[in-house]
Design a protein that fits this description.
Number of helices: 3
Radius of gyration: 18 Å
Order of helices and strands: EEHEEHEEEEEEHEE
Distance between the termini: 41 Å
Shape: globular
Helix content: 10-25%
Largest sheet: 10 strands, mixed
Number of strands: 12
Length: about 230
C-alpha cells in the first residue's frame, strides 16, 4: 500500500472560534474558514479546532469535521460517552445538516439531487473521486437561492449561483466533489475546479458554510436546532 504524504501547510488563522451553545455535555461552535478541525501530523499544522478547545475542555472530542476552508456549525462532545451517543446519531443519519455555497456559473435547474458514489484513491490524495465501481454511496440535494453577477478585483464580473446544499450522506469532500460533478464547482475550491474561471483565483476563501444543524440532545433527548447565517 502506498504511503500518503500530506504536504499541506496551513497559514495562520487569526479568527476566533465562537461558542454558540454550551452545557455540561456538549458545545456547538462556529468554525472559521481557514482552521483545521484536527491538528495535522506535520508539527506546522498544530493549530486546529481541537487544539484550541482542549485547553478549555480537556476531555472534548470532535463528533464530526469540517474541511479546512469550510466555516460553520460543529458539534463538540465534552466526554467520550457523549461522543459515542452523538456519533451514533450521525451514523444513523438522524442529524440534519444544511450548507450554503456559491457555485461557479448559473445552474439550469432550481433544485435537484446529486447521486454519485465517492471513492478514495491514494494516488489522488487529497482529492476524492467519483466512482460507480469503487465508490461509497453519496447523495446531496441542492436548492437555488439566487443567481447573480459578482464583480472581481480585476473589475470583471463572473456569474455565480447561491445554493442551499443538504447532504444525505457524509462522505469526505462530498459537497465539493458533487458540485464539480454537477458542472458548477464551489467558488474558491482549489481541489475541485472552483478557481478555473477567469478572476476566481482571488476568491478569499472556499465559499461553503455549514449553516444549520438539527440533532437530539443525548441526555435530555430534546431536539436541538441551530442556525448560523452565511458570512458571504
Amino acid at each position: 500500500m502506498s504511503t500518503i504524504i500530506d504536504t499541506f501547510i496551513a497559514p495562520p488563522c487569526h479568527e476566533q472560534i465562537d461558542i454558540l451553545y454550551q452545557d455540561e455535555y456538549l458545545l456547538v461552535i462556529n468554525k472559521p474558514s481557514g482552521l483545521l478541525s484536527l491538528s495535522g501530523k506535520n508539527p506546522q499544522n498544530l493549530d486546529s479546532v481541537h487544539y484550541r478547545l482542549v485547553t478549555l475542555f480537556p476531555d472534548c472530542t470532535l463528533v464530526h469535521r469540517l474541511d479546512f476552508g469550510t466555516s460553520g456549525l460543529m458539534i463538540i462532545a465534552l466526554n467520550k460517552a457523549i461522543n459515542a451517543a452523538l456519533c451514533q446519531q450521525f451514523s444513523q443519519r438522524t442529524v440534519a445538516k444544511v450548507y450554503q455555497a456559491l457555485l461557479c456559473g448559473y445552474l439550469d435547474d432550481n433544485e435537484g439531487i446529486i447521486d454519485a458514489p465517492i471513492a478514495k484513491y491514494p494516488a489522488l490524495f487529497p482529492r476524492m473521486s467519483i466512482s460507480e465501481v469503487n465508490g461509497k454511496p453519496a447523495r446531496s440535494c441542492y436548492l437555488v437561492k439566487e443567481r447573480f453577477q459578482q464583480k472581481m478585483e480585476e473589475g470583471m464580473t463572473i456569474p455565480l449561483t447561491r445554493v442551499q446544499l443538504t447532504p444525505e450522506t457524509g462522505r469526505t469532500h462530498q459537497l465539493r466533489i458533487h458540485c464539480q460533478y454537477l458542472g458548477h464547482p464551489i467558488l474558491g475550491c482549489d481541489l475541485y475546479g472552483g478557481q478555473c474561471l477567469p478572476g476566481t483565483e482571488h476568491a478569499p476563501r472556499l465559499m461553503l458554510h455549514a449553516s444549520e444543524l438539527r440533532f437530539t440532545h443525548p441526555i435530555s433527548q430534546k431536539p436541538l436546532h441551530f442556525i448560523h447565517s452565511s458570512p458571504f
